[in-house]
């Protein structure tokens, strides 16, 4: 299947959106659920018809696309910690791709969580908890490990820990999509103009809800 620049932009925006949510929770203790939902939704999309549908309705990763634009245009708005998380997730996904045992464990864990969705909402804490546990049992065994920084008050909260780990797993999911669509670190370094243009175009499209 041939993938477009828009497909790669959406996948990269998925990583940025997941990381943005992690940073907000770690620093402030909360984040807009409209930004969180597409990230978690993506974990349960195994056979999606298109890259965009992995995240839900049109404009689902607008928050991530906006982060890409800000990182590329404004020195004052750049958040180097966010960028480090993105790069680390891409590296972790590459390590994960070589571990069939961990991939199988993640798939089994997602299947179990999918059954729970029959009686619970997507953003129910009871859904975050097993996904967070799945992250701890699989991705946490890989290098480099992500050390999330923020306010101790927020980081010591169990619900926040679960949300952060679930979102990091969603970031891995997006990194996998980024690689599958032909994305690479070279494109981030040398294809910035093309990514920037696609991000702007994505943000101009009609969205089903304001993020």
Write a concise synopsis of the structure shown.
It comes from Thioflavicoccus mobilis 8321. The chain is mostly helical and 211 residues long. The protein has helices spanning 5-28, 33-42, 62-73, 80-97, 100-116, 125-137, 152-155, 158-180, 185-190, 192-204.
Describe this protein's structure.
With 211 residues, the chain is mainly α. The chain has a single domain, classed as HflD-like (YcfC-like, Orthogonal Bundle). It is built from ten helices and no strands. The mean pLDDT is 92.
Characteristic terms for this protein:
211 residues, mainly alpha, cytoplasm, HflD
Helices, by number, come to 10
Quaternary: single chain
The CATH homologous superfamily is termed HflD-like
Helicity level:
55-70%
Distance from first to last alpha carbon = 30 Å
Order of helices and strands: HHHHHHHHHH
Major sheet attributes: none
Structural class: mainly alpha
Mean pLDDT, as a whole number?
92
Strand content: under 5%
CATH architecture call? Orthogonal Bundle
Number of strands: 0
Number of domains: 1
Coarse shape: globular
CATH class: Mainly Alpha
